[in-house]
Amino acid sequence: MRIMSAVFCVLLVLFAAVQYNDPDGVFWGVIYLVAAVWCGLAAFLPGTFELGLTRLLFFGSLALTLFGVVKFWPQTENFWQMDVWWETETAREGMGIMIVLLALIVAWLASRAQVRNG
Fold first, then answer.
1. Could you read off the pLDDT of 52-62 as tens digits, one per residue?
2. pLDDT at res. 33
């Protein structure tokens, strides 16, 4: 799980980097970078999730991401098909926030596994 968190960390940094030419790139860049930080912490400093403030901030990020999944859920039919998301920004954004949610879940599971294993 820690390796998966590290992979997500790198991927999310790359996602943030490709936002440079997007009209709302700063918004999405911040979302991806926040998730990358959580994945990085889970991969390299999983014990930080045990701190009260860190845990509160993480669950706040998770709650905002869940809200984002609902808000940005693609309305485009068959949004998961490449020819649709390649052309439709709202489909890409919706899938992006779903990936962020998955990354945060992996980060949480990785931190929990590390704490259990000592």
1. 898 899 999 99
2. 97
- Helix axis angle, 52-72 relative to 89-117, nearest 10°? 150
Can you read off the two tokens belonging to residue 31? 């979302």
Residue carrying structure tokens 């068959």: 78
pTM here is 0.89
Q: How many domains does the chain have?
A: 1
Q: How far is CA 21 from CA 4, 12, 30, 31, 86, in A?
A: 28, 17, 14, 16, 15
| Cβ neighbours around 59 below 10 Å, total | 12
Q: 13 near 36, Cβ under 8 Å?
A: yes
Q: How many CB atoms lie within 10 A of CB 56?
A: 10
Pick from 49, 51, 53: nearest CA to 105: 49
